[in-house]
């Protein structure tokens, strides 16, 4: 949707949109309350700044909505659709890589008590597996930090994917024609 449309949504609908980016109620409300945004970059900068305050409790709340890496997201809603798009690279994964990720997911959940979260968009299954193995050696506090950083990356990518510049908010070029 265009930025002007996002800015004009009623509070409940805009919260539904932002909640798909990261299901952290206080963050969602703050992003919604920050409207109107002049540019998508401003929207993303505010969302990113607010994400720096996320806590372990926020992470746990948000992860209740995230599927495991390598598992097909269930449902028909916007969040499931976003997850399916982000994890599209897993459809081409070799069976052995898929099995190793599934086994790693179980170990991760036993160790940290939550699903393994990684920005899947732009990563190969082998890269995700390597990160899973590496992060299994983290101590719990370091892993919370890494998982929160991944959640923020996912949220900001989703925001940029959902909201585009409005023609009237595009930055003029040197010729005065919007880019």
Automatic annotation (TrEMBL):
Keywords from the named record: Decarboxylase, Lyase, Purine metabolism
EC number, UniProt record: 4.1.1.97
Pfam families associated with the record: OHCU_decarbox
UniProt pathway: Purine metabolism; urate degradation; (S)-allantoin from urate: step 3/3
InterPro entries in UniProt: OHCU_decarboxylase, OHCU_decarboxylase-2, OHCU_decarboxylase_sf
Transmembrane keyword on record: no
Enzyme class: lyase
Signal peptide positions on this chain: none
Region (Disordered): 67-91
Domain Oxo-4-hydroxy-4-carboxy-5-ureidoimidazoline decarboxylase residues, every copy: 7-160
Reactions the enzyme catalyzes: 5-hydroxy-2-oxo-4-ureido-2,5-dihydro-1H-imidazole-5-carboxylate + H(+) = (S)-allantoin + CO2
Keyword Lyase belongs to the record: yes
Listed NCBIfam families: PRK13798.1 (NF010372), UraD_2 (TIGR03180)
Protein known as: 2-oxo-4-hydroxy-4-carboxy-5-ureidoimidazoline decarboxylase
Lineage, uppermost ranks: Bacteria, Bacillati, Actinomycetota, Actinomycetes, Micrococcales
Gene name, Swiss-Prot/TrEMBL: uraD
């Amino acid at each position: 949707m265009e930025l002007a449309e996002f800015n004009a949504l009623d509070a409940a609908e805009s919260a539904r949109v932002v909640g798909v980016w990261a299901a952290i109620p206080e963050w969602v409300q703050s992003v919604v309350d920050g409207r109107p945004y002049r540019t998508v970059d401003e929207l993303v900068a505010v969302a990113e700044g607010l994400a720096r305050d996320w806590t372990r409790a926020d992470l746990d709340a948000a992860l209740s909505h995230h599927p495991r890496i390598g598992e097909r997201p269930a449902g028909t809603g916007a969040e499931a659709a976003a997850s399916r798009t982000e994890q599209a690279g897993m459809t081409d994964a070799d069976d052995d890589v898929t099995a190793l990720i599934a086994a790693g997911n179980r170990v991760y959940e036993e160790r940290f008590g939550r699903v393994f979260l990684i920005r899947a968009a732009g990563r190969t299954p082998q890269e995700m597996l390597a990160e899973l193995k590496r992060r299994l050696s983290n101590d719990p506090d370091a892993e919370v930090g890494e998982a929160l950083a991944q959640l923020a990356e996912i949220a900001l990518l989703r925001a940029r994917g959902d909201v585009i510049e409005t023609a009237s908010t595009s930055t003029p070029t040197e010729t005065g024609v919007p880019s």
